[in-house]
């Protein structure tokens, strides 16, 4: 018998036969594996977004094209709203710009959209929920009926909230949709946003504005 | 790859390899409970990576490498933990060596081997792996593996002394 065989014989005796895994162990592996996989894919997605953002930033720096091309009918607006609700202070801006607006200023079939930026300037985290946001037009209250990205701002707490609002479109318009709104709106619109435990704060949405930093102005291609 | 297919493949591999891998991990770490955790951790990682790995030629080899690497990682962390605990006069070790019923003398001798030599000798003699496969699995050169095995055999002879029996052959 060679040394290898002799050693192998003796070592084989060390190895105890273990039973197979239990069903609980299998379930645990699958559960943890799925969770890890989701986390891994999310991480990879964020990495890809970061790479694309950096690449876009670099490419944009070589371009002379302004972010917002000049239009025939220009209107200069200043957007900036400071509001207080309980001990949570929002300072933010609200704006609106019809997407796909025609040269004649007609509204697109699928409603309209604006972006809203809020900054939580308090020292505590807050979470905005669908029921905390509604629109009031001429005394009529419009609830959020279809919020396809509800997790977006439910999970996105302090210090900044940014989300888009679509008006009068049941689907496909944007993250927050209000049902039953006519396109024949009276501006400024009043968007009510209620911080948890506080009274609603009212953000006026001018007829032609776009999300920007408070107090800054921007030139828009709107009628 | 569809989730059902991935799940079925991982479960099948888990059922087939669990017992063998848990035994190997227990021999390397000297801790059966830790060995179970290590094997499960390896399969959790395998499940998460399965789709992005493309086709794995030898999944059982791949997961064995994961288990061995996790064993080494846990033991290194355990060594640091023991040193820190010693500083604070704590006696508990995170890895308690357990002696199997069979051949406790050889078991003690194996546990006294440095981690690299212990891993090589267990893979070679218990798992019946070739030196080139061990080198591949551990990310070492074949020469290093041969050297580790040589030193391991010498140390085993020293530790086992007059009772080394078959090792003289």
The shape of chain A is elongated
Please state the average pLDDT score of chain A.
50
Give the helix proportion of chain A (percent range).
Answer: 10-25%
SSE run of chain A: HHEEEEEEHEEEEE
Number of helices of chain A: 3
Summed up, the helix count of chain B is 7
Indicate the structural class of chain A: alpha+beta
Protein model, in words:
The complex is a heterodimer of chains A (223) and B (169). With 223 residues, chain A is an alpha+beta fold. Chain A is 25% helix and 29% strand. Chain A has a nine-stranded mixed sheet with strand order 2-3-4-7-8-6-5-9-10. In chain A, strands 1-11 form a two-stranded antiparallel ribbon. Chain A is elongated. The radius of gyration of chain B is 17 Å and the shape is globular. The termini of chain B are far apart. With 169 residues, chain B is mostly helical. The interface between A and B is large, with 31 and 40 residues.
Summarize the structure.
Chain A is an alpha+beta fold. Chain A is 25% helix and 29% strand. In chain A, the strands form 2 sheets. Chain A has a 9-stranded mixed beta sheet.
What layout of secondary structure does this protein have?
The complex is a heterodimer of chains A (223) and B (169).
Chain A: H1 3-12, H2 23-61, E1 75-78, E2 81-85, E3 88-94, E4 112-120, E5 133-137, E6 140-147, H3 150-155, E7 160-167, E8 176-178, E9 189-194, E10 200-205, E11 217-220
Parallel strand pairs in A: 7-8
Antiparallel strand pairs in A: 1-11, 2-3, 3-4, 4-7, 5-6, 5-9, 6-8, 9-10
Chain B: H1 3-29, H2 32-49, H3 59-87, H4 104-111, H5 115-125, H6 131-138, H7 142-160
Helix pairs in contact in B: 1-2, 1-3, 2-3, 4-7, 5-7, 6-7
List descriptors.
heterodimer, A: 223 residues, alpha+beta, 3 helices, 29% strand, disordered C terminus, B: 169 residues, mainly alpha, 71% helix, globular
């Amino acid at each position: 018998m060679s040394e290898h065989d002799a050693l192998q014989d003796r070592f084989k005796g060390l190895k105890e036969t273990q039973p197979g895994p239990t069903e609980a162990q299998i379930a645990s592996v699958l559960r943890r594996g799925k969770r890890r996989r989701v986390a891994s894919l999310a991480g990879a997605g964020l990495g890809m977004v970061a790479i694309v953002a950096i690449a876009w930033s670099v490419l944009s720096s070589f371009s002379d094209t302004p972010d917002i091309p000049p239009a025939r009918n220009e209107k200069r607006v200043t957007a900036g709203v400071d509001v207080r609700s309980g001990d949570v202070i929002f300072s933010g801006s609200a704006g609106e710009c019809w997407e796909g607006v025609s040269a004649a200023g007609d509204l697109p079939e699928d409603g309209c959209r604006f972006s809203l930026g809020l900054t939580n300037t308090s020292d505590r985290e807050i979470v905005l929920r669908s029921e905390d946001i509604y629109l009031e037009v001429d005394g009529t209250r419009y609830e959020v009926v279809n919020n396809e990205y509800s997790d977006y701002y439910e999970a996105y707490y302090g210090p900044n909230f940014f989300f888009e609002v679509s008006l009068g479109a049941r689907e496909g318009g944007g993250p927050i949709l209000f049902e039953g709104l006519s396109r024949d709106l009276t501006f400024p619109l009043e968007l009510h946003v209620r911080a948890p435990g506080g009274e609603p704060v009212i953000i006026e949405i001018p007829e032609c504005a776009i999300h920007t930093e408070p107090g800054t102005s921007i030139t828009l291609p709107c009628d | 790859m569809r989730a059902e297919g991935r799940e079925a493949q991982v479960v099948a591999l888990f059922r087939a390899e669990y017992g063998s891998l848990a035994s190997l991990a227990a021999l390397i770490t000297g801790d059966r409970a830790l060995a179970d955790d290590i094997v499960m951790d390896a399969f959790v990682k395998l499940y998460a990576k399965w789709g992005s790995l493309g086709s794995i030629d030898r999944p059982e080899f791949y997961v064995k490498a994961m288990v061995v690497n996790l064993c080494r990682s846990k033991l290194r962390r355990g060594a640091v933990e023991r040193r820190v605990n010693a500083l604070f006069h704590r006696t508990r070790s995170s890895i308690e060596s357990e002696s199997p019923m069979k051949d406790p003398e050889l078991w003690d001798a194996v546990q006294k081997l440095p981690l690299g030599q212990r891993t090589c000798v267990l893979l070679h003699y218990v798992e019946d792996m070739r030196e080139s496969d061990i080198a591949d699995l551990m990310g070492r050169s074949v020469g290093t593996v041969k050297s580790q095995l040589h030193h391991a055999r010498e140390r085993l002879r020293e530790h086992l002394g007059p009772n080394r029996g078959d090792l003289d052959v």
